[in-house]
Amino acid sequence: MEIKRKSGQEVCKLHHAENGVTYLTFPGLERTGAVRHLFSTREGGVSEGIYRSMNLSYTRGDEREAVDENFRRIADCLGSSAADMVCSDQTHTDHIRVVSAKDRGKGVVRPKDYRDVDGLITQERGIVLCTFFADCVPLFFVDPVRGAIGLSHSGWRGTVRKIGKKTVEEMKKAFGTDPKDVHAAIGPSICQDCYEVSEDVIGEFRKAFPGIEEGDAANSSKEGVGNGSLRSEVRKRACPLWFPTSPGKYQLNLWEVNRLIMLEAGIPAAQIEMTDLCTCCNPDLLFSHRASHGKRGNLGAFMKLL
């Protein structure tokens, strides 16, 4: 299988486990020595049809027994069990839940007793935080000094609400985390080339990031651009977060927006890893809502403190 990467170097590292599961990790998070983590691919599960094969959603129509087995295989890769997992309840909010031992198993082996949670944080060793994706952005946070972790789901709504910054703020509030100690990663998700959004979405981002387009007109005139495609290239350089492609349509860079949000939260640039894999560009390896027109399973991000 050909893997399309957005950079010249391998940022997300691909692994093939003995139980057949193929997954991705970030070297910087591994180097902290504080966590075990992974981001799943479609490979190594038992689901069939549009869910092939490592589907991690109980709500999209797959057989429960297949999803149970998929979670068990992921848990094996982490040296854990499904009973150690705690799942988010994602509804595109910026709500963060502090997870403790009493939450073990929620979302996999027992029901969740909470709603509208797109981010999870914990200081409890051995608990596996779990969030789910099929184009939205996984955000990983590790504080090796305080022994704390966070894992958040960031679609465009979570991104414009700066859920990444809020996750760090909640880790500081709950555990005393200093943002300068945090190592973070932006996981596989839809890239700017594949992510077209409407004017109203960009309007929300303009409110959240005032002044980001100030250099557009000056830069365009300096370049002497006359046609639409070249103008878009100039605008892309002037405003790395979004650029217009046609009336009322823009290409939005969720990766770069989330990186800037992490910097705003106080995380050092050298401690932020950004994915090189687009879900939409790699539909055979990764589930993508846009590429599949909604006929798909879910990927998962998983992390636990050692």
Structure characterization notes:
The protein has about 300 residues and is α+β, with helices and mostly antiparallel strands. Helix content is about 25%, strand content about 25%. It contains 9 helices and 15 strands. The protein has helices at about 25-30, 65-75, 155-160, 165-175, 200-210, 215-225, 230-240, 255-265, 290, and strands spanning about 15, 20-25, 35-40, 85, 95-100, 120, 130-135, 135-145, 150-155, 185, 195-200, 240-245, 250, 270-275, 300-305. Strands 1-2-3-15-7-4 form a 6-stranded mixed β-sheet. A 6-stranded mixed β-sheet has the order 5-6-9-8-10-14. Strand 12 (about 240-245) and strand 13 (about 250) form a beta hairpin. The longest helix is centred in the first third of the chain and has 14 residues, at about 65-75. The protein is globular, with a radius of gyration of 19 Å.
Low-confidence stretches: 215-236
Total of helices: 9
Order of strands, main sheet, comes to 1-2-3-15-7-4
Summing up helix and strand content along with how strands pair, one would put the structural category as alpha+beta
Order of helices and strands: EEHEHEEEEEEHHEEHHHEEHEHE
Oligomeric state of the chains in view:
single chain
**Proportion of beta-strand residues:** 15-25%
* Largest pleated sheet: 6 strands, mixed
Q: What value does the average pLDDT take?
A: 92
Q: Outline, from the CA principal axes?
A: globular
Helix content bin: 25-40%
Number of strands: 15
